[in-house]
Amino acid sequence: MTSDKLGFDTRHRPGALARYFAERWLEEPSAKGEEIIAWLLEAALGKNAMYFIEKTKEYVDAWGGSGEVVPANAFDDFVITGDPVEDTLIPHAILVWTCMNGRPWSEGVYHRWLDSLLAAGSAEAAYLAASLWPAPDLMTKVAYRPVQWLVYRGQLDAETERLILAEMLQGIFGQRSSLYGLFEYDDVPFPNQLPEQYIERHGFIHPICGLVQPIKLEWNIEINKRIQEVLAAPSWSEGVKGAAMLLYLSLKACNELRAPAQETLNVLEQKLFKLDERHINIINFHMDKIEKIDYNLIKDYLNYLIILYKKTIYNSVLSMKIFSKYMSIGLKTNDIIYIGKDFNEIICNLIPKEKEKVESWLEKQADDLRIKDVLLSTYMNKRIYDTDYSIINIDEELKAEQVYKRIEDIYGKIKYFDKIKLFINQAKIYSNRFKDLHKICDFINYVLKRETRTNFISSKFREDYSKIIYSWHPNRMHISNSNMFYNSNHIGLYLYYGILKQWREVMVYFTKIEKEFNLYSYTKNKIIENLYIRSTDDIEIKMNLYLNKIESNNLPYEEIKYELIMDSINIMKNNYDKILEYFKDKSKFTKFRKLILSNIKLFRNELRNSLLIELLDINSKSQNMIIY
């Protein structure tokens, strides 16, 4: 029975990894079983991740030990969707294959691939491709910049604001939809730090700043200073008013404040007259001074306020109380940018206290498709402790038959593989602990046995498939070696783990496959050289990489070029003998000399260094010609 007869589609035929798990999971391995497993792997990790994993193994197995490992047409079978979760794996996969080959393809190949990403609307993937791939002028085609770069630059339009709030709603333990890039601000590992970074760079001028954590005000004197400077102004802009309102609510909700934070609160209390009536009403509503407020008055600040109570001050009980108040004034879930684990926990904790109110409110949110997933989650989960606010875990006593019926009640008649996707989504988005994944895998096993008549070895499937779901790349911040199949002898899977772990602390094991081990080690080392330029101690490698990055013109902003030039100058000053040897290559000498002299206005003070003057063969005449 092929995948089309099974009712689902796999992008590619089952490969070595599907066969590996078929041997582990199936009571009787078969072609049909391998098809099912190939689909399960794609459903958990994504089509592009599985294509990269299986195709890499296939290419390496066919490689004779010299020459190109991966052909240039390998890119053509990726599925570009416009979804960063699917597509941002592609730039990293191409980087891996480039390093594996030992040399890049022609520049036109990379430009053609970048054009494909842009044409599909895959902005995040296109940006990563431009920063990671070895072809000049890729970045000139890409308008998109990651959230943290926009915070750094102060470029917060409505869409950027929405992206920042989405990151903060997920929090430091949430999923990161896009993979990391080459530069410091390409990733957002700690979204709770974004308000602090914005204040440090641009001042207390945007509502985002009001979400700065109170603890930051207790030890960061500069942050307090910058906030109080803005508050001292005769009048406040709309952005400052929003920030001040949010910070005031945040500080008032804290039980204890140390001197610096208390001082800022005192200043705020003296300056509240600068707020509009709208802001005062929002404050009074949240502090229980008024019972009702027009929902439209808080709508623009809704996501800020949810973050404030759940993430900024970490008060789950207060967050639940405030959320109940929002329900009473007509909260619409479509106004919430991201719904995930935190939202689900609040609902599960409110239901025992206000069951009729919560269920009635959820029914009114039927136009938000995410609510169906929340309804399924609230059915599958239960509160563990009878406290004001309890962590939510899957009900261990729940039977698969019960969940199967509940799915049909919520979603109607849907295909069995769509039911499995719902379970996988529950595991990725709403589960609080690894043990919950085991229970979900039992439900998936039930569906497979019922619908495909395929018998899995329950214990192995439960344990293994939980790890696979957990290895979904948006979860990369939390993946450990204990979740990895490092005895699989699968180089594609090992390289995927390398991408997830940013090439640090990845355990691999090859059984009598010296070719694969050597190729894996070579590829990993080349990638580390490219991703972590500053970490290498080899002066020649570092200088070559700096030069390549500068000449490629693939930097997100111009100031990065000057940082790299400055780093190069410092290497020259501190490694005279090695640089003298390096500059025996006249082309390298000429390029660095031209690069520094063409930017001499920025580095004039550095060129007073006698060693640098000697290394670059600079005289006063050449300096004057450039300057004037």
Describe the structure.
With 628 residues, the chain is mainly alpha-helical. It is 61% helix and 1% strand. It has helices at 3-6, 16-25, 31-45, 47-62, 84-87, 89-101, 107-119, 123-132, 147-153, 158-170, 194-202, 214-219, 221-231, 238-252, 259-271, 277-286, 295-299, 302-312, 316-328, 341-350, 355-363, 370-380, 400-411, 416-429, 434-452, 458-470, 491-500, 514-531, 539-552, 558-574, 576-582, 586-597, 600-603, 610-615, 620-627; strands at residues 381-383, 392-394. A two-stranded antiparallel sheet has the order 1-2. 38% of the residues are buried. Residues 620-628 have low confidence and may be disordered.
Quick summary:
61% of the residues lie in helices and 1% in strands.
Topology overview:
Elements: H1 3-6, H2 16-25, H3 31-45, H4 47-62, H5 84-87, H6 89-101, H7 107-119, H8 123-132, H9 147-153, H10 158-170, H11 194-202, H12 214-219, H13 221-231, H14 238-252, H15 259-271, H16 277-286, H17 295-299, H18 302-312, H19 316-328, H20 341-350, H21 355-363, H22 370-380, E1 381-383, E2 392-394, H23 400-411, H24 416-429, H25 434-452, H26 458-470, H27 491-500, H28 514-531, H29 539-552, H30 558-574, H31 576-582, H32 586-597, H33 600-603, H34 610-615, H35 620-627
Antiparallel strand pairs: 1-2
Helix pairs in contact: 2-3, 3-4, 4-6, 4-27, 6-8, 6-28, 7-8, 9-11, 13-15, 14-15, 14-16, 19-20, 22-23, 23-25, 24-25, 25-26, 27-28, 29-30
